[in-house]
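Appendix C: a fully annotated inverse folding record. The material below is reproduced so that readers can follow the format used throughout the book. The structure is listed first as tokens, followed by the designed sequence.
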């Protein structure tokens, strides 16, 4: 079953086209990554999914039906911009937001308490939001999106403001939700998280889908033209004609070979000017694919 479907959706703001003939679908019980550089149209696409804005053209379907506001009781939304009331307590925020999602105040507070204990912020529930760090506020916003136990969970930059430990906690919760049969969409710049979590992706640039599909198939389609090299000495071998593009960090480089290039020939060239401690031919990381597709779009 398909939980979310966008079909040839378009959205403009005056003369600026934010989303341009965009189509993709998200299967049920799947973690889906909506990716792209800043200004690519990700947030506008999400807002059209949940009726905050209307598309100028195209169709949005949720749970197999054309979008209607009644579908939203089955949707949880974590916005990129926090929507908490800073002058009232966490408990009061979650009671209010839970009631807006159809819960009683008592049920909202009880569920909020359980989630606060799981996310290690139980000691903060009677504090005002303005007293909390950005990471703590992000946890509260995350709880608000889950209180009514939605079937579809949409998260815009869910790891923003979180340190590695709390990002890992959030990751575990996302995986548990998937195990419970929820469908999850998130938009993020954290390619490492996408690569570990997502079943499928859609990469958007200038409002259009430039790459989409199952994550394994997307990576396999790039072949093994990528090489990671750790070296000491002169890096002039990175200008070798065998190389299509490279990302050099000093004594470490990520290289994309030209089609048909021999990696062993590159290794021999590298050893002429540098001491090589690691030379590994591998499938590309999602970050490498992201950079490659976005940079090529500007050529």
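Designed amino acids, in order:
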């Amino acid at each position: 079953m398909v939980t979310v479907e966008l079909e040839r959706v378009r959205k403009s703001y005056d003369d600026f086209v934010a989303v341009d003939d965009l189509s993709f679908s998200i299967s049920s019980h799947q973690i889906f990554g909506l990716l792209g550089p800043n200004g690519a149209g990700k947030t506008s696409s999400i807002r059209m999914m949940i009726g905050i804005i209307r598309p100028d053209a195209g169709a949005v379907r949720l749970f197999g039906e054309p979008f209607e506001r009644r579908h939203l009781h089955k949707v949880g939304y974590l916005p990129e911009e926090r929507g908490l009331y800073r002058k009232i307590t966490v408990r009061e925020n979650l009671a209010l937001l839970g009631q807006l999602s159809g819960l009683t105040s008592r049920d909202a507070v009880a569920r909020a308490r359980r989630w606060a204990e799981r996310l290690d912020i139980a000691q903060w529930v009677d504090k005002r939001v303005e007293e909390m760090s950005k990471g703590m506020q992000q946890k509260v916003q995350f709880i608000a999106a889950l209180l009514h136990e939605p079937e579809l969970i949409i998260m815009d930059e869910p790891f923003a403001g979180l340190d590695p430990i709390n990002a890992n906690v959030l990751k575990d919760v996302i995986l548990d939700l998937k195990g419970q049969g929820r469908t999850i969409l998130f938009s993020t710049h954290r390619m490492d998280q996408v690569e570990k979590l997502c079943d499928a992706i859609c990469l958007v640039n200038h409002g259009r889908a430039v790459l989409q599909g199952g994550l394994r198939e997307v990576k396999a389609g790039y072949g093994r033209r990528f090489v990671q090299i750790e070296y000491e000495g002169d890096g002039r071998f990175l200008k070798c004609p065998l190389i299509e593009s490279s990302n050099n960090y000093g004594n470490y480089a990520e290289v994309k070979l030209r089609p048909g290039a021999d990696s062993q020939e590159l290794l021999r060239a590298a050893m002429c000017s540098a001491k090589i401690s690691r030379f590994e031919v591998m499938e590309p990381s999602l970050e490498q694919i992201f950079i490659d597709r976005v940079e090529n779009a500007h050529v």
